Amino acid sequence: MNDASVEAPERHSHALHQADRTWDQSNCSLDLWIELLHHLALEPLAAFGCAVRLDFEGDQYTFLRIPGPDLEALFGIEVQELTVWRPLLDHAVEQSARGRIVMPEVDAWFLPDTRGTSYRQEHVKTTIAIEAIDPAARTLAYFHNAGHYTLEGEDFDGVLGVVERRQNALPLFVEIAKLERVVSHAPEELARRAGILLAYHVARRPRTNPIAAHRARIAEDLALLRGESFDAFHRYAFATVRQLGACFGLLGAHLRWLETSGGGSLQRAAEKCEEIESTAKIFEFTLARAVATGRAADVVPLMERLERAWIIVMDELARSHGQ
What we know:
Elements: H1 28-39, H2 68-75, E1 78-81, H3 88-97, E2 101-107, E3 125-127, E4 129-134, E5 139-144, E6 147-152, H4 154-159, E7 174-178, H5 187-202, H6 210-216, H7 218-226, H8 230-260, H9 267-293, H10 300-320
Antiparallel strand pairs: 1-7, 2-3, 2-7, 4-5, 5-6
């Protein structure tokens, strides 16, 4: 088997992905864009006003993505869905030659950077951003989660579907990022644009407290999880607690950056975002114990603390934006 996973030594992950972060990863889409923007010498911190719209969707928190219009307004990046009517390899080669970034959903079974979790162990859908591709050498350089990696050989074939694993396999979702009009604004202009977008998202924040909605069904969720495997708990925690904590961590970092760049007095809102970020980490561990014991009451005080912090964040941002 000819496989490789090497993070380029000259590349350094963005500060949002450093080990000192409470949540050093969020989800495959946000993490990919953090590193891709960083690679393009653009500031990812400008892009997370959208996190104020994180909601509880009934069985999970919002799987947050940076909206396409935000990427275009801030950086001039246009994102489009790619119609996969030929083999994905052919599309990837052509679009890469045009200077675009190809972002396909792929099977993490073939991603060496997931060694120890999904690689050759579990078929899991995730998104990568292809930076460079060499079909002759069967090598591919890509962004995934918090880093930049390479793969080759059988992994190259598997990721790009060169050898179909089953008949009539449906093509996965693919997007392209068009970089022809990328612009790096001066910090003051970038902050101005980010402030406008933040006001837009604040006006569309959830109408009811999403953490209170989660608390209303936590006993039901714990009862369901108690009869399941630890893997089921891990998937639940990823869809709920991790999205809550990581996204408010990004929102807090965004507010700190905005304030530094002249975006107004946002310190209290940022502090409460950071409280949600850190409390959610404690909540995750407490939740694991609650699943084992069946004691939903153990997590209620933490959830109430999270609810109060969310209210303050929203009130502060609404006040600062005249809403």
